[in-house]
Amino acid sequence: MYRIGEFSIINKVTVKTLRYYDSIDLFKPSIVDKYTGYRYYDEKQQATFDEITKYKDLGFSLDEIKLLINSNEEEKKIIIKEHLDKINESIVNEESKHNILKNMLKEIPRVEYSYYLHKPYYLKKLNLNNRKMDSIYDEIKTDLEKYGLKTLRKIFINHEIGYVEENIDALIGFEVEKDLGKIDGYFLDNYPPKAKSLIAHGKINEIDDLYKDIVIYSKDKNYQIRGEYIEVYDKGNVDVYVESFNLNEINEDEVYYLDHYKPNYEIDERLIGRYKIKDILPSFNMFNPDKQKNSVETKYNILELKSDGTTNFDNIKWNKKELMMEYDNRIIPIHVHLSKLNDKYYLDVLFNEDYKYYKSQRPMLYIYERIK
């Protein structure tokens, strides 16, 4: 099963479009979670969506496509013949044919699992109307050069969970040789820290396919995508990488986490309350938390921290200093942090739902929004 964000990346279609297709009964999800309303798509639905995309690319209206996918072969021929007559009255778009044939012959870009090495990043936080960013990069480059910094490869960190064509939240900037510590913006020296990434290499005009290849590769090979997609541009080439865990082995990042994690700070009674799950990694969209939809599969959908140190789950206790989760007579401390953004309170909880996953991956970040 694919979550709606994953399905949007694979098919290069926006989440907004998928929801619209559902609303007009053109293409409905396989399952809609009755508690969260979140949509899930089955792999068997891919053929139907491919058919819809094919007809859309050939210029059929959505109403015509609804008729096509619900008609028998004779009825389809009539609709197609009417559409063909319209095409014969217009100029055939040779460029479109050329691109379709070229994509059919194109090799799938290579995906690897490794550490991604890079220089430090200087980045600006922006919301973009589209992907036309040349003028933005020129402005950032000019700003950095005022400080005597030589700009290297272009960087784009995508904060969206699915395929998006407008209203894009991102960090944009350059690799640089060093950090001066006095420039407005974000400086990232080692990102993501410690963990390996799935990396896809290709040409700039293949950027959407690189995202798709990473998602498909992760599903086939049992890798867990955990972070934000990062694009690194070098002339006509681009690398796309995203922090990921190989769930088939013990990860170095998990060993590092367990060696360094010490729950040595207190939480207070401000945390008492009822919370609803907002998201599980990929990380919370701090640009606009309302844009982040509930894309989770968890039995801990509602978490209530009660004043007597209990919760709404028998295996999770609270001693007003830390949360503790019991797994088969094992007690695991749970990292908890309360934050406030745009007058809303959020609870960050770092844990895994099953003890066996502590052997292969670090705890995941569960983000809850206070509802009471």
Salient structural properties:
alpha+beta; Multidrug-efflux Transporter 1 Regulator Bmrr, Chain A; single chain; 27% helix; nine-stranded antiparallel sheet; seven-stranded antiparallel sheet; globular; Multidrug-efflux Transporter Regulator, Chain: A, Domain 2
Task: Describe the protein.
- The strands form three sheets. Strands 4, 5, 6, 7, 8, 9, 10, 11 and 12 form a nine-stranded antiparallel sheet that branches. Strands 14-13-19-18-17-16-15 form a seven-stranded antiparallel sheet, with no helix packed on it. Strands 1-3-2 form a three-stranded antiparallel sheet.
- It has nine helices and 19 strands.
- By secondary structure, it is of the alpha+beta class.
- The longest helix is centred in the first third of the chain and has 16 residues, at 73-88.
- It folds into three domains: 2-105, Orthogonal Bundle (Multidrug-efflux Transporter Regulator, Chain: A, Domain 2), CATH 1.10.1660; 112-246, Multidrug-efflux Transporter 1 Regulator Bmrr, Chain A, CATH 3.20.80.10; 258-370, no CATH class.
- The radius of gyration is 24 Å and the shape is globular.
- A hairpin with a 6-residue loop joins strand 2 and strand 3.
- It has helices at 4-11, 15-23, 46-57, 62-69, 73-88, 94-105, 134-145, 207-221, 252-260; strands at residues 2-3, 31-32, 39-41, 111-114, 121-128, 151-158, 168-176, 186-188, 197-203, 223-225, 229-234, 237-246, 273-280, 302-305, 316-318, 323-327, 330-341, 344-351, 364-370.
- Helix 1 packs across helix 8 (207-221) and helix 3 (46-57) packs across helix 4.
- The model has no long low-confidence stretch (mean pLDDT 82).
